């Protein structure tokens, strides 16, 4: 089950860029959070995850995460079938 996410990686990178610009212009953290419409914890989590990424790198990260979850699902489906074939080949029915 996928976690609910209100923002795409591209949107997150864009908002982090805006936060950096606001911070450089002298805005307080509270003002930045209000403008971006996020909590302080979310801002810190985004900075830790997407820190200095470009929009294209964030998009690529999202694509790789989706592909990874698809491959994990496929592997999870294949393992029971593989075990059943192994049992049949050994003659343990």
What distinguishing features does this structure have?
93 residues, coiled coil, transposase activity, Transposase_8_domain
General description of the model:
76% of the residues lie in helices and 0% in strands. The chain is mainly α and 93 residues long. It has one domain. Helix 1 packs antiparallel against helix 2, helix 1 crosses helix 3 and helix 1 packs antiparallel against helix 4. The radius of gyration is 21 Å and the shape is rod-shaped. The mean pLDDT is 86.
Can I get a quick summary?
Helix content is 76%, strand content 0%. The protein is mainly alpha-helical and 93 residues long. The longest helix is centred in the C-terminal third of the chain and has 36 residues.
Major β-sheet profile: none
Number of domains: 1
> What does the oligomeric state look like here?
single chain
The coarse overall form would be: rod-shaped
Q: Residue ranges: pLDDT <50 for 5 or more in a row?
A: none
| Number of helical segments with 4 or more residues | 4
Number of DSSP-assigned strands: 0
Question: Helix content range of the residues, please?
Answer: over 70%
- The fraction of residues assigned to DSSP E strands is under 5%
Rg, Å, rounded: 21 Å
Mean pLDDT: 86
Structure class: mainly alpha
Question: What is the N-to-C succession of helices and strands?
Answer: HHHH
The first-to-last residue Cα distance is 34 Å
Detail the topology: elements first, then pairings:
Layout lengths: L8 H16 L4 H8 L3 H11 L4 H36 L3
């Amino acid at each position: 089950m996928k976690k609910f996410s209100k923002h795409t990686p591209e949107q997150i990178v864009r908002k982090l860029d805006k936060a950096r610009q606001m911070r450089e212009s002298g805005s307080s953290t509270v003002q930045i959070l209000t403008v971006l419409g996020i909590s302080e914890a979310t801002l810190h989590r985004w900075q830790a995850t997407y820190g200095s990424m470009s929009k294209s790198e964030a998009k690529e990260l999202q694509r790789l995460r989706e592909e990874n979850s698809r491959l994990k699902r496929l592997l999870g489906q294949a393992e029971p079938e593989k075990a059943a074939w192994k049992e049949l080949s050994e003659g343990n029915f």
